[in-house]
Amino acid sequence: MVGQDPVVSRETATHQGVAKSLDDTPIAKAAERATRVLTPGAAGTLPRPPHRRIITVANQKGGVGKTTTTVNLAAGLALHGLRVLVVDLDPQGNASTALGIDHRAADIESVYELLLGEATLSEAAQKCPSQENLYCIPATLDLAGAEIELVSLVARENRLRNALDSAQLDALGIDYVLIDCPPSLGLLTVNAMVAADDVLIPIQCEYYALEGVGQLLRNIELVQAHLNPRLHVSTILLTMYDGRTKLADQVAEEVRRHFGAKVLNTIIPRSVKVSEAPGYGMTIIEYDPGSRGAMSYLDAAREFAERAVAGTGTR
Ligand code: ADP
Ligand code: MG
Fold first, then answer.
1. Contact at 8 Å (CB) between 123 and 215?
2. Minimal CA–CA distance to 283: which of 118, 101, 150, 98?
3. Which residues, at least 6 apart from 94, have a Cβ–Cβ distance to it below 8 Å?
4. Cα(191)–Cα(193) distance, rounded to whole angstroms?
5. Which of 53, 78, 209, 225 is the most exposed, fewest CB within 10 Å of its CB?
6. Secondary-structure class of domain 50-308 per CATH
7. Ligand 1 atom at shortest distance from the alpha carbon of 278
8. Is the CB of residue 275 below 6 angstroms from any atom belonging to ligand 1?
């Protein structure tokens, strides 16, 4: 090493005297991954599904990663060249926030107007400001009242399905519609299930992970029997996995035993970055593209899209 410029050689010595390449540091690796992910075209493209797919992301348990999964999976698909529309069906509007849409602004057309027939899909869909190929129909606080207002409307369970007009989705070139549900099994979630081809259930790798899933599955069967014969559970995504705990592995194993091939191989790790991103109005893929959280959602998006084309994830 004598006489060698340490910068030019890209070698550094640790205090134990062990040479370590700068390229091997975690920060350098993350930076390299980030550049790779964000270079136009470098992410590669994913196959378009044979038909447009409408997917409901549901689990009546709160805090399991529905919204996080909806926006980051959507961003992952969009980064790979697919056109995605996120429908925010939770009055809290967290998906809209994470996608950088100001859903508190006065006079925006939102999913509330869409459900009540006061706005069309093309009026309510907004292009997300910082990502190509990504659109969002935002939720406003008005939506909190919709659950009650919908009760007296004609075809109350079919409002979203009717509003997701094929011609208007075609005009936007949408390949995937992802619907983010509120944490309940009320009329909004039923609307999402009637509009969808299939359901993606995020399951948190924590205690009581499967609590309530039985009830969710029974509701899906009810909707399938009475309102939407196409509906089925296609995908399970394990979220907030903490490799340091035995419990996380036990939950993951139990979920795989229960749901078999429906469970994506990709597991989303618990990561602070993932939880920080929405605070900046960003998906994890914009906020920290080289992070483990971003890479895992990109992997999940790839797996999800490839299964759709192979037909394994659609039935
Ligand atoms: P839900 O929509 O099911 O209520 P969220 O997606 O809002 O769940 O997630 C609940 C909380 O957990 C949020 O604060 C979110 O930022 C955080 N969170 C979600 N996924 C992760 C993750 N992989 N790592 C760390 N925090 C996460
Ligand atoms: Mg949510």
1. no
2. 98
3. 67, 88, 180, 278
4. 5
5. 225
6. alpha beta
7. 16
8. yes
Whole-model pTM?
A: 0.89
Ligand 2 centre distance from Cα of residue 94 (Å): 6
Residues 283, 275 contacting (CB under 8 angstroms) = no
Residue type, 219: N
Spell out a b/e string for 60-74, using b for 16 or more CB atoms within 10 Å of the CB, else e.
Answer: bbeebbbbbbbbbbb
Cα 302 to ligand 2 centroid, rounded to whole Å: 23
Beta-carbon contacts of residue 275 (< 8 Å; ≥ 6 apart)? 68
Give residue 69 CA to ligand 1 midpoint distance, Å.
8
Q: What tens digit of pLDDT does each residue of 157-211 get? A: 999 999 999 999 999 999 999 999 999 999 999 999 999 999 999 999 988 888 8
Task: Please check whether residue 141 is in contact with residue 93, taking contact to mean a CB–CB distance below 8 angstroms.
Answer: yes
Q: Which two tokens stand for residue 200?
A: 């993606």
Q: Which amino acid is at 180?
A: D
